[in-house]
Amino acid sequence: MAYVITDARPEDAETLGPLHLRNWLRTYLNPDAGIDESWIREHRGSSATTEGIAEWREFIEGTSRYPDLRFCRVVRSGPEIVGYLRGHREETVTLGPMYLLDHAQGHGLGGRMMTEFLAWAGPARIRLGVADYNERAIRFYRRHGFEIAGERYLWRGRMPTLPMTREAPSAGGPG
Question: What is the domain-level CATH number for residue 72?
Answer without folding.
Answer: 3.40.630.30
